[in-house]
């Protein structure tokens, strides 16, 4: 039995990293005939760790749903739903909290980076959690484990930054199964694509991220051709001649090669062969052209769906109803196993 699950936070417009690292893979996996169930969740409870403006959150959720559908996520092939509409996520999360050692969570890098950003802390070594780390941000990966395990998911398509959370999910599942001597949860596999880590255009030592304060560090799926062109022009590359794929020594240009390769379907080698004698300006122009061309139909579809808000909301309703049925059944089983029901 193959059950596919993934989630995205409604904390703004998705960027090329979200798209190439995760969403395109979601689209291909929803078409996988061997999957008995495919669920994609707008994880609004997770977003609460960052976005606390109620109006913004509401707006972002609808916008995110519209964008996912415009990218090809098809409600006929999968369930799209808001996490908070299925209360079993929070309930299972509490149960998993009770078997998750704090030591496991303290090793997670994501809360450290987010906390560092929020509090403007210079280095991770300087982190002092007594100056205001919310419990929610720290416990975030347990809720993520609950999202996945609630549906007994077996496959989870994500970007590279989520690999550690998936390892934790397997550890929690294994601990639960062993402790209660019952194989309740399968150990879910992480599914990655070659574009699993798209880098910031400003600082290619970092990943492209929704929360970076630098607008030109990322290309949003809703950016105009002019914005895309400006951002790629300003993208940090090096002064070496020629186009070469070498993520360690030439991360900026290699990142653009990955983007170009993902959009065209050409292999990295084919891209490098095509442009090896070009200068970086020529290559950047080609990358711009391909990105603009690729995003155009998606943006058109976003505009169309914006006028169909009623329909989009009904998709979310329907997704939540169906997800709730499965979630309730599985949660009931967990409750029995741990002794809260007979
Ligand atoms: P989020 O909302 O930050 O990102 C959504 C997806 O995009 C991927 N991603 C990237 N991939 C490549 N390059 C990048 N620069 C890049 N930035 C983001 C992320 O890896 C992710 O797959 N914790 C998750 C949401 C979540 C979830 C889950 C995922 C909650 N519960 C259960 C899977 C299963 C997150 O923060 O995603």
Describe it.
By secondary structure, this protein is mainly alpha-helical. It has helices spanning 16-30, 44-47, 54-70, 88-97, 102-106, 110-119, 135-150, 163-179, 225-234, 251-264, 268-275, 280-306, 309-338, and strands spanning 2-8, 35-42, 79-82, 155-157, 189-191. The chain has 2 domains: 2-191 and 309-338, Rossmann fold (3-Layer(aba) Sandwich); 215-304, Tyrosyl-Transfer RNA Synthetase (Orthogonal Bundle), CATH 1.10.240. 54% of the residues lie in helices and 7% in strands. The mean pLDDT is 95. Bound molecules: tryptophanyl-5'AMP.
Number of structural domains: 2
Q: Please tell me the overall pLDDT.
A: 95
What is the makeup of the main sheet?
3 strands, parallel
What are the segments in which pLDDT stays under 50 over at least 5 consecutive residues?
none
- Structural class category: mainly alpha
Question: In whole angstroms, how far apart are the ends?
Answer: 27 Å
Overall form:
globular
* Residue share in helix: 40-55%
- For CATH, the homologous superfamily of the largest domain is named as HUPs
The tally of strands reads 5
% residues in beta strands: 5-15%
CATH fold assignment of the largest domain: Rossmann fold
Give the count of helical stretches.
13
- Helices and strands, in order, run as EHEHHEHHHHEHEHHHHH
CATH architecture designation of the largest domain:
3-Layer(aba) Sandwich
